[in-house]
Specification:
Layout lengths: L1 H6 L7 E5 L2 H7 L9 E5 L4 H11 L6 E4 L8 H12 L5 E7 H7 L8 E2 L4 E10 L5 H8 L7 H8 L2 H8 L5 H12 L3 E5 L12 H19 L9 E4 L11 H12 L7 H12 L5 H12 L3 E2 H18 L3 H11 L4 E9 H11 L3 E5 L1 E4 L2 E6 L7 H11 L2 H6 L4 E5 L5 H4 L4 E5 L3 H8 L5 E3 L8 H13 L1
Parallel strand pairs: 1-2, 4-7, 8-10, 8-14, 10-11, 14-15, 15-16
Antiparallel strand pairs: 3-6, 4-6, 5-6, 9-13, 12-13
Length: 472
């Protein structure tokens, strides 16, 4: 993938593949139709030594673009963006970076090594441009740190204890860091921030390879399944135990109380009492949620609630989410489908999840707001059971009428309370279903059961993606 992307670029005149075993590499890719501008060369020690060796031995002129073979998701537009930005500064060398927010917004499950500065957190994307011969200084400078597993901290320490401490305590700005390294190395170095986070995902771990394969598959779907004049599918996702692997409401209330109102944790026994009263049928689910909200959160400033909710959603998507859900959502996003989260959760929480997952529509329980503050209670119906179906149809129209005009309606959920919604969908999908939902599926041939995983991409996801492709 890396070679084919670079080989197709007219601005790339020569490509040197430097490896420990050039013959093996050349043999492994012999089946691919690559041009004769590619040469395979024996590496010389580490990366820095190899770059210097090829540069000097082949008497190469600048600029030189350097990347790694495991940069599998690189595209021509990534390189073009990088080169155009690099051409607009006076640096001797440029390196590509991706902001943490950009990567985690598109791929919340991705694990990368982050360089955390005062003003920004970034990760490298194995993309460098040597613009002139002065860049040789930084390559020699880097050789001293290349083999160290703690190279970033070692580098920070060599530029001075004060700089090291500023970096360690996140008081060092990104621009300031590059100015210091430029001064120490004798090379003017500038960062280039790339917009597309795909370029920051390299194949370091097995989980990276799984993610890369999924992204490449989505790209194929995006290319093959572009619709022209066909009805847009409506794809509905439940939230709790469908996208996430657990409930979110009570855990969030506890999360909020710990951070903002810790004394309210003393009221947890009363929360448990409210739950028992609900199970006895004395109060409704809507009343239960309002009471729990009143006990553990109370009235809260709307902006403060949003900040804490964003932190909570980041936490959930980082550790308590079904990875198959993320991949399925991403696959649907590669088409022109209309995606929606339909959940009994409050709208403020649904919006945070939708924003992070790139979903533009929500149907959720509406919170009560008064003068910029969110107060306990639900405005209208709790978005659950029959009420969820009603609220979905109020937003998107009659599901029967949609299907009568050849619109496909998909619904992914784990819970039997969504049966009223599932019955009106052309493609009902039960995710890790409850026993009651399993019984309903057994009686409905249209329904599909998938078992989604919280740690890996399961075979169920592969089957699901094939179903999506065929239906499209």
């Amino acid at each position: 993938h890396t070679l084919t992307s670079l080989d197709a670029m007219e601005t790339v005149t020569e490509i040197f593949v430097v490896s420990q075993d050039p013959e093996e590499i050349q043999s492994a890719i012999s089946e691919f139709p690559l041009s004769d501008k590619i040469r395979f060369i024996q590496s010389d020690g580490g990366i820095a030594d190899s770059i210097l060796s090829v540069w000097q031995r082949e008497k190469l002129s600048t600029p030189l673009l350097v990347t790694t073979a495991d940069n599998c998701l690189i595209r021509q537009e990534h390189v073009t963006d990088f080169l155009q930005q690099a051409d607009n500064n006076e640096a001797d060398m440029c390196l590509g970076l991706v902001e943490r927010e950009a990567l985690t917004t598109r791929y919340p499950e991705s694990r990368r090594t982050w360089l955390k500065f005062k003003d920004i957190a970034v990760t490298g994307c194995n993309l460098f441009l040597i613009k002139n011969n002065h860049a040789e200084n930084i390559i020699h400078y880097w050789k001293a740190f290349e083999s160290s597993p703690k190279k970033v901290f070692k580098l920070a320490w060599t530029v001075g204890p004060l700089v090291f401490l500023k970096f360690f305590f996140k008081q060092l700005g990104l621009g300031e860091a590059f100015e210091i390294i430029s001064s120490k190395s004798g090379t003017r170095i500038q960062p280039v921030k790339l917009k597309d986070p795909d370029v920051a995902i390299d194949a370091d771990k097995v989980s990276d390879i799984v993610q890369i394969e999924s992204i490449l598959k989505i790209r194929e779907t995006q290319t093959d399944n572009k619709l022209s004049g066909q009805p847009v599918p409506l794809v509905i996702f439940d939230l709790d135990r469908t996208i996430t692997n657990h409930g979110t409401f009570l855990p969030f209330l506890i999360y909020f109380a710990v951070r903002k109102k810790p004394l309210r944790l003393l009221l947890l026994p009363f929360v448990i009492l409210m739950m028992l009263i609900y199970l006895l049928g004395i109060i409704s689910r809507k009343q239960l949620k309002a009471n729990m909200q009143a006990l553990l959160m109370g009235e809260v400033d709307k902006k403060q609630l949003e900040i804490v909710c964003e932190d909570y959603v980041n936490h959930v998507l980082g550790s308590r989410v079904n990875l198959d859900a993320l991949f399925t959502i991403r696959q649907w996003r590669s088409t022109d489908a209309q995606l929606v989260i339909a959940t009994a959760s409050f709208d403020w929480m649904a919006r945070c999840f939708a924003r992070r997952l790139g979903i533009s529509n929500i149907v959720a329980s509406v919170s009560i707001e008064q003068e910029g503050r969110t107060v306990p209670g639900i405005d209208g119906n709790n978005c659950y059971g029959d009420a969820k179906l009603t609220m979905v149809e109020q937003t998107f129209g009659s599901l029967r009428e949609l299907q009568s005009t050849d619109h496909q309606v998909w619904c992914y959920t784990d819970h039997h309370s969504d049966v009223p919604l599932l019955e009106l969908c052309s493609h009902p999908v039960a995710i890790n279903p409850t026993q009651a939902l399993t019984s309903w599926v057994d009686e409905n041939s249209r329904a599909q059961v998938l078992y989604w995983n919280t740690k890996t991409v399961s075979n169920s996801f592969i089957d699901s993606s094939k179903t999506v492709s065929k239906s499209r």
